[in-house]
Structures are given as C-alpha cells and as structure tokens.
Specification:
By secondary structure, the protein is mainly α. Helix content is 71%, strand content 3%. The chain contains 20 helices and four strands. The protein has helices at 2-17, 26-40, 42-57, 61-90, 102-113, 118-137, 140-147, 150-172, 196-219, 225-236, 252-263, 269-272, 278-311, 323-339, 351-357, 362-384, 387-402, 413-429, 432-449, 458-473, and strands at residues 96-98, 175-178, 182-185, 345-347. The strands form two sheets. Strands 1-4 form a two-stranded antiparallel ribbon. Strand 2 and strand 3 form a beta hairpin. The protein is globular and about 60 Å long. Keywords: Cell membrane, Membrane, Transmembrane, Transmembrane helix, Transport. It is a multi-pass membrane protein. The chain crosses the membrane at residues 30-51, 71-90, 97-116, 122-140, 160-180, 200-219, 226-245, 269-295, 370-403, 423-446, 458-476. Belongs to the nucleobase:cation symporter-2 (NCS2) (TC 2.A.40) family. Azg-like subfamily. This is AGZA family xanthine/uracil permease-like MFS transporter.
C-alpha cells in the first residue's frame, strides 16, 4: 500500500511539473535543487553581515547584532517565498534570494552614505517591488526582454559565465586584489607561511582540487558531479583548516526574537518622509527606487535569459518559456523580501548550478525553496560548507555557460562590438546589469552610425537613453 501511495505522489509531481516532458527525472530534479541551494547558501551568512555592517561602522554593535539576526531569518523566508513562487507558479528551475550588489547598495550607499535607517531603506525596496509588479502586470518587462536584440541576447549567457567565474575565483581566494594590476593570482609560493596567509592559500588549493574533481566526474558522466565536488571540497577543507566544524550557532530563539523586533513588517514610512522638505525627499526616494529597479530588472532579465538558454527553456520564437510567470515571481519576491526585512530578492545567477546538473522544472526550485526554509533550523550545517567549497561550482558552471559563445555573431562589427561589451562588462564591472546596459547602448550607437537604424527598435533606443541618464545622474554605490 505504501508503495502505491509513493507512486501516486511521483506521478502527480511528474504531471504537475512536466518532468518527463522536460526529459528529466525526479531524482535529477531533487539533486539539482540541492546543488542550487548549496551553491547559493553563502547568502544566508553574507547578507546579514552586509546589512548590519553600517551599524557596526557607526558604533552601534547592539543594533547591528539585532539586524544581523533579523536579516538571517528574513533572508531565509524571503528566499523561500521567491523560490517557491518560481516552483509552483512559474514552474521554472530558478532560485531567488537577496541579490549581491543590491544588498551592498542598500547598506553602504542608502544607509551608511545617505543616512537612512534600516527600516527606511526597506521602504525603498518595498516601493521598487510595487513598481515591478505593476510593470510586469501590464507586460512592460516582457516587452523589454523582446526588445533586446539577438546580438546582445546571445552574449548574455557567456557573459554570465565569465561573471560567475570571477565571483568563484574571488570567493576561492585564487585571485586577489592588487593595487598595481587591479587583480592578481594568489602567491602559491608562500605556502609555508602561518596564519591568514596560509589559510588564503589553503582555501585556493581546496577550490582548485574541488574544481578538478568536478571536471573528472563530469567527464566520466557521473550524475551530480557538481554537488559531489562541493562535498569533496568541504571534506578536503577539514585537514587544511578551511572547513570549520565549530561554526555551530544553535541560538535560533534569539534570531526569531530580533526578527520580530526589527525586521518583520518594520518598514518606516513615517520616518522616510518626515523631512522638512517633502518634495525633495520624494524626488530623492524616487531616484533611489529607479536605481534599485533598473539594476534589479536587468540583473534578473540577464539571469533569466542566460539560464533559460542554458536549460533549453526557449520556445520556437526564441522567447523564454513561462516568462511572464517567472517575472511576476521575481516582482512579488522583491515586495515580500522588504516585508520580512531583507534587501531586494531577485533571480540569482547561481540557479545555473542546478540547471547544469540537469534541473529543468519547478521541482528543482521547490527543493531549493524548502532547503531555504529548513535553513532556519539547520543553519549550523549550512555554515560548515566554506566558500572555498562552493566557489569551484561557480567556476565550473562558468565553463559550461561560456560554451554558448559559439552562438554569438562576431562576423559583423555592428553586432560584434555590442556582444563583446555585453560579455566583458559583466565580469569586469561585477554586474550583469552593466553588461546588458552597455551592450544595448553600443548596439544602438553602432546601428545608427552605420546606416542600419531599421535594426533598432524604438523601445531598445528608449531603454538605452534611460541607461545613459542613469549613469550620468544616478549614484549607485
């Protein structure tokens, strides 16, 4: 009888998510969901640190700790809401979580630089969520995606590949900052040093070993090569001092208390608009909402297009399957994220890790979503996996995504230059949105200046002008 019930549940999941139709399996989808979660789990540790850091810098460690605890719970819940929407509403294998870059803008520009409080900054995120829902409902975001020319669209996937590669190399400590050359390779010859220097080299070695393991397993067609590589790197990191089994924080009760006190539904509308010059405040807030929205929109659009192309979720017209539902999930999650106390929740590029494992349906997202929720109770396990173990997953997915560069048209310069800008601006400015923006701007300029104005859609030109104005007049960190 038990076997019959299990089979009925499996059949329902297959029909609901279209697993067989997508040429996948429940086992593959579950494995992909776990892989996506492990690859993005670092955000559960990093996001609370970033959003609370302004209060550390301002000398208020008590408030900083409260915000960090509250944001941890908010990050788990916000990521769960966004990802479960992707699973059950959009039925796509994408995860959502607070976006890196946007959280830094929230913390260091809006709170620390401009003097807004944590609660007031949440209002700005909330307003950008409302804006997103409106433009998604009327179809504007879909129209924007359709306006992106093929020269830029085809370059987004390899651009994201390089972008997540540089994130992985940085997280692993393989590349380090250098005042003379901007970045450089970690000095492996210093392996005999003690302390932080030795840990840096050990972290880089752990990541490189993990990367090689992933490559070998993938070449041998072993299922779950990325996840197995992460587990192997985590274990290898124990004797190297990179994996810390002491990272256990079981004080969940305090986190829930602080979540209720400072994060959950703690948006300070009254404080935000309480200034002496109301119209000036409205203008400033509007500019901040637009800045948040532009970066979030093109980060999520770029991720959506890149991941969809990687997973084969493109229809015969070249459009993303279930695009409107995916965009609405993204919009609602931004609103929900503000309500639970975290910065902008968006579709994350780490979704590509699960897709690389074989995730093709919403079941992948459902597994990831419940792992986000479960992290509230099982954060000690999540915190044990070091950045050096997840970094090789990003690098390896970068390899897979870069393969799409063969689809980019480099034969004609008015297409080649925009594609090139799209690809290189993503990793070298640390932003998917910047890559798409400069791709669109150079596309319009090249087409208009070479007598091919008929190739430029009106909306493409409008978006490019908006980006020019944004770069000229709107500060973003």
């Amino acid at each position: 009888m038990e076997d019959i019930v299990v089979k009925q549940k499996a059949d329902f999941a297959d029909r609901f998510f279209g697993i067989s139709q997508s040429r996948s399996s429940i086992k593959t989808e579950v494995l992909a969901g776990i892989t996506t979660f492990i690859t993005i789990a670092y955000i559960l540790i990093l996001n609370p640190q970033i959003l609370s850091d302004p209060y550390v810098i301002m000398g208020d460690p008590v408030m900083a700790e409260k915000i960090a605890n509250g944001v941890f719970i908010g990050t788990c819940i916000g990521a769960f809401i966004g990802t479960v929407l992707c699973a059950l509403y959009a039925k796509v294998p994408f995860a959502q979580a607070p976006g890196m870059g946007l959280n830094a803008f929230f913390a260091y520009t809006v709170v620390l630089g401009m003097g807004y409080t944590y609660g007031q900054a949440l209002v700005i995120v909330f307003l950008s969520g409302i804006f997103f829902i409106v433009i998604t409902a009327i179809g504007l975001r879909e129209a924007i995606i359709r306006s992106i020319p093929d020269a830029v669209k085809m370059a987004i996937t390899p651009g994201i590949g390089l972008f997540i590669t540089i994130i992985g190399l940085k997280n692993a400590g393989i590349i380090i900052s250098n005042p003379a050359t901007l970045v450089s390779l970690v000095d492996f010859s210093q392996w005999k040093l003690e302390g932080a220097d030795m840990m840096l080299i050990n972290g880089a070695l752990t990541a490189l070993i993990g990367l090689i393991i992933m490559g070998i397993l993938h070449a041998r067609k072993v299922k779950g090569s990325i996840l197995l590589g992460i587990v192997a790197a985590t274990l290898i990191g124990i004797p190297l001092g990179i994996t810390h089994l002491s990272n256990l924080d079981m004080n969940i009760g305090v986190k829930f208390r602080d979540f209720a006190e400072v994060s959950f539904m703690r948006m300070d509308f009254a404080g935000l608009f309480a200034g002496t010059n109301f119209m000036e405040t409205v203008f400033t807030v509007t500019m901040l909402v637009i800045s948040f929205s532009l970066v979030n929109m093109f980060d999520s659009i770029g991720t959506l297009l890149g991941a969809a192309r990687q997973s084969g979720m493109i229809d015969e017209n070249g459009e993303v399957i279930r695009m409107k539902q995916a965009l609405m999930s993204d919009a609602v999650s931004t609103l929900a994220g503000a309500m639970v106390g975290t910065s902008t929740v968006t579709t994350v590029v780490e979704s590509s890790a699960g897709i690389a494992v074989g995730g093709r349906t919403g079941l992948t997202s459902l597994v990831t979503a419940f792992m986000f929720l479960g992290s509230i109770l099982f954060v000690p396990i999540v915190s044990i996996v070091p950045a050096a173990a997840t970094a090789p997953a990003l690098i390896f997915v970068g390899i897979l995504m870069l393969g799409n560069i063969r689809e980019v048209d480099f034969s004609e310069m008015s297409n080649a230059l925009p594609a090139f800008c799209t690809i290189v601006f993503m990793p070298f400015t640390y932003s998917i949105a910047n890559g798409v923006a400069f791709g669109l701007i150079t596309y319009c300029l090249m087409k208009l200046m070479t007598g091919r104005k008929q190739d430029v859609k009106a909306l493409t030109l409008v978006i490019s002008v908006v980006f020019v104005v944004r770069y000229a007049f709107m500060t973003l960190g």
